[in-house]
Amino acid sequence: MIVAGILTPLEDALRAILDWLGPHGAIGLPWGWSIVALTVLVRIVLVPLTVKQIHSMQNLQAHAPQMKEIQRKFKGDRAKQNEELMKFYRDNNINPAASCLPMLAQLPVFFALYFVLRHFHGQEGDNLSWLGLIDITDKASTGWGPLLIAIYAASQVASSYFMSATVERSQRILFMVLPIAFIPFIVQFKAGLVLYWVTTNLWTVGQGLITRQLMPKKGAPPPKRSSRTPPRGGDGDGDGAARKQPDPKPKPTTAPRRVKKKKKARR
Questions:
Q1: Please, which residues have CB within 8 angstroms of residue 120's CB and are 6 or more apart in sequence?
Q2: CA–CA gap between residue 7 and residue 198 (Å, rounded)
Q3: Which end of the chain, C or N, has fewer beta carbons within 10 A?
Q4: Max Cα-Cα span within the chain
Q5: Alpha-carbon distance 100 to 72, whole Å?
């Protein structure tokens, strides 16, 4: 198989890491926990791409009003709309694909781990089960695998919710429905592969929660003014200036008329 041949170096590396983490390696973890630890190591290696993803999401959120205005303006011309959006991305140094980089980088690891587990055999006497519940070499449809599938579905929906925070509502709904549609295929995978995907989903959820804290929050709108609402600044008006007192009653500018007394007539 061509894909298997291309991924052979990565497959050998993952097998060596699992042997190092596993019961007979230097770390001595059970095989299930070895998968979890392998997932954490992969996500640590992808931290630079994750940082780019966070910056891209922040940039997209900051320019969301302008992009919505472009979409509204060229709603009837999809080609022109895409052209203007691409120009807007270039002018503002936005890479909309950066939010998908960590997921795309994990796909080769996912397929390589699939080939590793397909030919994975423990030594005689090894206990491949994790807490007596999950055997990483069995299909996820057997034993307690359905419980792992349910955790996968919930974690995949949650991670899709955070990863699609900057896309349109219709696309966001599609991203959250697809994990449920993939369940009939997921149950045919090895339990260890599903365990890997569940762990990376939980990592993505934690990353999404942290990203939300780092993103700038929009300021709350100012409270509405009413007739009873005192002006800002105490006795000042809206710009902080002191309230002007009403002018006193103007004084008359003309001098009062003098009344001449009539002289008494002489007798």
A1: 15, 18, 136, 137, 192
A2: 22
A3: C
A4: 158
A5: 25
**CA 117/CA 131 separation, integer angstroms:** 19
DSSP 92-159: TT--GGGGGHHHHHHHHHHHHHHHHHHT--PPTT---EETTTEETTSBTTSTTHHHHHHHHHHHHHHH
Dig out the tokens for 264 from the structure.
């008494």
Tens digits of residue pLDDT in 196-210: 989 988 988 888 788
Closest CA to 38 of 19, 58, 63: 19
DSSP codes, 70-83 = HHHHTTT-HHHHHH
Task: Say which DSSP state 187 is in.
Answer: T
pLDDT in tens, 181-194: 888 888 888 888 88
pLDDT above 90 for 41? yes
Percentage of residues of the chain with pLDDT beyond 90: 6
pLDDT tier at 37, thresholds 50, 70, 90: very high
Q: What pLDDT, on a 0 to 100 scale, did the predictor assign at position 228? A: 53
- Helix or strand (DSSP H, E) at 193: helix 191-214
CB 139 within 8 A of CB 188: yes
CA 12 to CA 84: how far, in whole Å? 46
